[in-house]
Amino acid sequence: MIDPFGRTVNYLRVSVTDRCDFRCVYCMSEHMTFLPKSDLLSLEELDRVCSAFVAKGVRKLRVTGGEPLVRRNVMELFHALGRHLETGDLDELTLTTHGRQLPRFADDRRRAGVRRVNVSIDTLDPEKFQKITRWGSLEKVQDGLRAAKEAGLHVKINAVALKGVNEDEISEMVGWCGSQGIDLCLIETMPLGEIDGDRSDQYLPLSLVRANLQKVWTLEDTDYSTGGPARYTTVKETGQRLGFITPLTHNFCESCNRVRLTCTGTLYMCLGQDDAADLRTALRTDPSGELLDRTIDEAIGRKPKGHDFVIDRRQEQPALKRHMSVTGG
Ligand code: SAM
Ligand code: SF4
Fold first, then answer.
1. Which of 273, 325, 310, 270 is nearest to 3 (CA)?
2. Residue 309 pLDDT class (50, 70, 90 cuts)
3. DSSP, residue by residue, 44-92
4. Best mutation site among 98, 140, 187 for ligand 1, i.e. most ligand atoms within 8 A of its Cβ?
5. Which atom number of ligand 2 is nearest to the Cα of residue 67?
6. Which of 110, 152, 232, 279 could crosslink 224 through cysteines, CB 3.0-4.6 Å?
7. C-beta 27 within 6 A of ligand 2
8. CA 315–ligand 2 middle distance (angstroms)
9. Does residue 92 carry a pLDDT above 90?
10. How far is the C-alpha of 274 from the C-alpha of 125, rounded, in Å?
11. Is 15 in the pocket of ligand 1 (CB under 6 A)?
C-alpha cells in the first residue's frame, strides 16, 4: 500500500479495547465513559480486518489499547494472528501494555510468536507512579517486567516526559534501563482527548530533556529505526538505545508508515487528524471481503501528509477530542 505522498504503509496498530484499569493523568480523565461493549469488533472480526491488511502488505502489527490485556480472551487473537508469522507474511506481532497483566500472559504471548513488548513506565518512584496512573501499582508492573524477561520477551520502556513530575528523574531512568539491558523511549505529551488537568502544565519539550541528559550521558546518534517516529541515540555508557518521540517539537510525519484501527473498526490514517474510514460496516455488509478491501484502498489513498498538533494555552480544548486509548498509542 502506497499513500499519495509515496510512503509505503506496512504497519498497523490495533486498539483492541478503549478500556483500561489505569487512569494515567495525560491519557484519561478519572471518570471516563467507555464505548458500549456491543460496539466493539469481535475478536474474530479483528482477526479478519488485520488479516486483510496483512494480505495488502502490512508486515508489522502492534496490539494496543486502552489496555489490550484487559480485553477478554485477547490471547485468542494473538494466537490467530500468529499464523501470519508462521507463513512469513508478517515480520512482527507486538504489544504495548502497562504491564500489570504480564505475569499471567507472558509465556502464552511468546508461544503466539510475540518477541517484543513495549511497557509504559513513566517513573521509578512508587508514589509518583500511583499519582500518574491514579489506579496503578509500580510493584505489580515490575512483576510484569520480570515475567516478560523470564519468558524471553524483548522489552522496551516507553515513558512520557511530564513537566515537574518526572523531569528530574529521567536521567536516573536512563541509568536504570541501562542496568536492566532495556531500551528506553521518551514521548512528548500529545493533545488528545479531554483530561482533568491542563496539558500545557504537563508539556515538556524533549529538546530540553535531551540537553539536560547530555550533561550526564554521552548520546550518540544512530540510524537505528523501528520504522516509527522515534529518533534513536545510543547511550555510550550503557550501550542501550534511547529514543525520542517529539510530535510537537519535530514533525515526524515524512517517514510515517502506519495506520491505526480502533476497537470499533474505524481506521484512522493519522493519529493527529479526524479523517477516518468505517471498516466495520464494510466488514459486516459484505462477507466476501471485497468491500473491506476497497474501503481500505480508498482510505490509504487519502492518508494525510501530517498532523497539526499544537498545545495551545489560549484554547483549552485538546487538538482532537478522541483519547489516545481510542486510536491506540
Ligand atoms: N495501556 C497501554 C500502555 O499504557 O502502554 C497501551 C495504550 S497507551 C494509550 C500507549 C502509549 O501511549 C503509552 O506509552 C502511553 O504513555 C502513551 N500515551 C497515552 N496518552 C498519551 C498522550 N496524550 N500523549 C503522549 N503519549 C500518550
Ligand atoms: Fe491506560 Fe495506557 Fe492510557 Fe495509562 S496510557 S490510562 S495505561 S491506556
1. 270
2. low
3. HHHHHHHHHHHHTT--EEEEESS-GGGSTTHHHHHHHHHHHHHHTS-SE
4. 187
5. 8
6. 232
7. yes
8. 24
9. yes
10. 36
11. no
The tally of domains found in the chain comes to 1
- For residue 225, the enclosing domain spans 11-327
Residue 1 resides in a domain: no
Q: How confident is the model at residue 317 (pLDDT cuts 50, 70, 90)?
A: low
pLDDT at 311 over 90: no
Mean pLDDT of the chain, nearest integer? 90
In a domain, 5, yes or no: no
27 lines ligand 1 (CB under 6 A): yes
Report CA(238)–ligand 1 centroid distance (Å): 26
CA distance 150 to 103: 10
Residue 199 lies in a domain: yes
Average pLDDT over residues 220-248: 88
Nearest protein Cα to ligand 1, atom 4: 98
According to DSSP, residue 133 is labeled H
Higher pLDDT, 250 or 40: 40
Q: 324: Cβ below 6 Å to ligand 1?
A: yes
From atom 10 of ligand 1, which residue's Cα is the shortest distance away? 329
- pLDDT of 129 reads 97
**Which of 29, 67, 132 maximizes ligand 2 atoms within 8 Å of its Cβ, making it the mutation to test the pocket?**
67
Q: What is the CATH number of the domain that holds 280?
A: 3.20.20.70
Closest ligand to the CA of 203 = 1
Query: In whole angstroms, how large is the CA radius of gyration of the chain?
Result: 19
Taking 70 as the threshold, does the pLDDT of residue 101 lie above it?
yes
**pLDDT for position 194:** 76
Q: What is the pLDDT of residues 295-308, one digit of tens each?
A: 999 999 999 888 76
